[in-house]
Design a protein that fits this description.
- The structure is a single chain.
- The chain is built from 15 helices and 19 strands.
- By secondary structure, it is an alpha/beta fold.
- Among the domains are: 112 residues, Succinate dehydrogenase/fumarate reductase flavoprotein, catalytic domain (Flavocytochrome C3, Chain A, domain 1, Alpha-Beta Complex); 134 residues, Methane Monooxygenase Hydroxylase, Chain G, domain 1 (Up-down Bundle).
- Strands 1, 2, 6, 7, 8, 9 and 16 form a seven-stranded mixed β-sheet that branches. Strands 17-15-10-18-19 form a five-stranded mixed β-sheet. Strands 11-14-13-12 form a four-stranded antiparallel β-sheet.
- It starts with a strand and ends in a 13-residue tail after the last strand.
- The mean pLDDT is 95.
Length: 567
Amino acid sequence: MLKYDIVVVGGGGAGLMAAIEASKDKNIKIAIVSKVFPTRSHTGAAQGGMNASIGIADPNDSFEKHAFDTIKGSDFLADQQAVLFMCKYAPELIYELDRMGVPFSRTKDGKIAQRPFGGASFPRTVYSADRTGHVLLHTLFEQAMSKENIDFFNEYFLLDIDIQDNRVEGLELLNIKDSSVLYIKTKVLILAGGGFARIYWHRSTNASGNTGDLQAIALRKGIALKDMEFIQFHPTGLAKTGILLSEASRGEGGYLINVNGERFMSKYSPNKMELAPRDIVSRAIELEIKNGLGIGEGTSAYVYLDLRHLGEEKLNEKLPQVRQLAIDFEGIDPAKAPIPIRPTAHYCMGGIDVIDFKSSETSVKGLLAVGECACVSVHGANRLGGNSLTELVVFGKYAGEYAREYAKNVDFSNNKPSIHSESYINSLMQREGNVKLYEVRNKMGETTWFNMGIFRTEDSLKEAYEDLTKLLDMWNYIPVSDKSRVFNTNLIELLELKNMLELSRVVALCALNRRESRGGHSREDYKERDDKNFLKHSVVCYNESGELILTYKDVDISLYKPEERKY
């Protein structure tokens, strides 16, 4: 049996940052488990930058102002002390990353550059052209690789967590290379496996592996999920594929225009225009299309992102990846023509309920959650662009620090493993049935997009919940058609699909019961925010009978009282 003091599941920014911090004690043995090779993690898809009030672009900025912008952007559903913690420590983390070798873009006098981003009152987004997540991920991976007390388990899939007496004991992994099952005993388990926006299957910026595996396993182990109804739809996904075009496109001065060539954001956010928060911009685009001002028909309709006025030189310097993506996937050069775009599912504000933001610990002793798979909650009902990478590094660092000290002061237990995933995998490999995996997955994507997408109603959400329940039952009749044990992606896709279906159903349940509109959750039948009844976090878990139970808990509003959200 393998033993590690700390196991991190997830090889992206949050997991790597936690492992690097924990590794500062050379006697602590750490394993990083990743479903993909770490540099393929979804942190690399974050393009535009990360927020920190370092005050170079404007010395009047401060971490308190960053915190207020974040709380306002969250539609006052973020826990305010957690937000303040993140914003306070963000600047020093930028300089720590700078010392690690992250190649941030610079001003003419060599200082770290900052750009404007949506919902921010100052230009505080630190960036590296439009590849910020990519360079951050590679730098952190290099740092982790250099630590002698960190081992990597690449291309391993988390199957189950061993919890006994409300304490983490270990975990079981599927070795994707040969479909064998591996048990690792540990004192601390840090979950850092990213989001689950792939539940929207065809309309998502996310990589196909962003299937919420850790959230689904946590749910099955009796750990609560929080604020799952809040999905962020990014305004500028490429029309044909949903691939992300960074908010930096608008931060650098891009326009959104409709079929008449009109900059329509003046109707929805006259002060911020294209730099309003993402939920507001996404709804504005969909309303333009709904009102016949889009280009094309039905699900193929879109509006334009116009970057032509920025000029070729600025595009190549500040937005090289945006330009290349538009050329590769839409056949359009942004220097010469506007780009067809439409909102696309991008980020999940909800996740595993973290009960202590300073340590990132959950309700289970020794079990931590960081990054998009967690809900701290610093994003509330809507995340500001540029805050995801900030969240990764701040909470990743302090989770790693807590894990290191915790692991030093506890011993491995003598308990035997209480989980046995090998028989489960064998039963899946032998399972027969006539339901096709791709048909269930496509139906899931249609159900989520049309019934619990940008605009939602009581009827659409009820229908979504019922349809997803049926699809979850159909999952039991999907066979593994590939009987090989070597790199069996068919088996992995089956496991991922179950996780997505379970999480989709949770989203539908929470959205159905939140009878208001707030941030990324927009109800056409309850158009106003309702602080009297819904200034609270949704909390979901399974009961002993396997039924989903929804409860609520208070939001921390100790710093700023909720007010009307205007831009």
